[in-house]
Amino acid sequence: MAGDLRPISSWQAHLPEGEHFSPDNLICEESLPRLWVKVLSTDPDQRLIYDSSGKWMLRGEFLEESGSVARAMYASGLRAGERVILSGAASTRLVVYYAAALRLGLVVVPMNPGFTESEVFHVVRDVKPSGAIVDSAALAGLLAEIVKQQEFSVPFSGPGAGLPLPHGVFRIFFVDDEVEASGGSEVPMDAAWRDAPALIAYTSGTTGRPKGAILSHGNLLASARSLNIAWRWTESDRLILALPLFHMHGLGVGINGSLCVGSSVILLEKFEADRVLTAIREFSASLFFGVPTMYQRLLEAEKLDEVRSLRLLVSGSAPLPEKVQREIAHRTGAAVLERYGTTESLIDISNPYVGERQAGCVGFPLPGVEVAFSGSKNEIFIGGPTVFSGYLNDSVATAAAFPMGAGWFATGDVGSVDARGYVSIIGRLKDVIITGGYNVYPKEVEDALRSHFAVTDVAVAGVQSETWGEEVVAFVVKSAD
After folding, report:
1. Interval 10-28: pLDDT, tens
2. I need a labelling partner for 358 at 20 to 30 A (CA). Which of 122, 157, 193, 221 fits?
3. 18: burial class by Cβ within 10 Å (0-12, 13-18, 19+)?
4. How far is CA 193 from the centre of its chain?
5. φ, ψ for residue 164 (rounded to 5)?
6. What is the DSSP letter of 177?
């Protein structure tokens, strides 16, 4: 054990009685696509994904269409190891393209459709993508223009390297476009191994630009399988998912976890409390995943009682106010399960599915996850197969993320453990504001405000909010003119 790390381990709190668990079991399938194909090939006529189109996509259709898209991508010249941006509203087609990219061994870069031009520019310059999957012509045009301005050589590696392919060509795929399957059986699919990069997910520190956390197939697979075990997630479940798919809560938990067991997903393009509650009844749903702000909105809705039929409600991405958790339990009898995670290490700690879901606590380390505390401030460190390998193009930030040595990620969060082993998050070393489940970084807001002609100086901080968890407050020195 490096340094003064003080580890805790409580996996048994998440396991069904009498079940044996080995961390190796989490990644024995090697990659997400290998497991998806194995699971979804069984009972191909079972319903899998429903969206605003009003249609269900079946398991077999999903495998067929993701395979066709993967072959079309291959025919365009894309090869394993190349990077593609993924940006769009939640839809079945977006998930198909996401799956196709991973099946082909591409590295997916989820991007918020609401990013400003400067934010898009930073991601493109950092990633040097070979292509993009979008649902907006405006974003497609912006991406193409930025790529043209950069004049970079697109990185290329993996199977087929050295073939006479169009190099440096930026390919754009629209999620609603029909594709023709081509390339036949010689197209290498579902061949990625656990150490191969699968996602580059952007997150920020207290200074500088957002950083791209490199997550492998093994990282994503281990996290999804751990949650499948801990939350008793099976193919009979139906998930109402109103989270954005550029966010790890929606993509890394909701989509990956569902595809790994073959359960059904009802995708909502945006969160509306009444629509969520209606969908719970309409689809006989069993699961709902949300952020604290969503639960506050559900409390204000007339049909709140619909959540009684759910077997599990999960809250994450920001601390859930104890008042909200207790009021939901009082009015509906449903105990919201709060969990904790980071972009760099995915989901790490969760209240138990069986047992007390203690308000104000995030629970116990998930199966396979190692949690430790360090220093007088009890900073939380995470180890295990879900921990990322480092930040793209940033060796300094990578070294800072692993001060105790390889394998132990310093989260920057401060925690405590009670006598029963429940972990609580009590603060943050990193200066980040979490509002509505999203990370807001004071320096970025300050830089934007300082660009206004009427602002001489500014300081940004977060204040507590029952609705948003935290709200962003700016203290501005106004220009004399």
Report:
1. 899 999 988 888 888 999 9
2. 221
3. exposed
4. 20
5. -75, 75
6. S
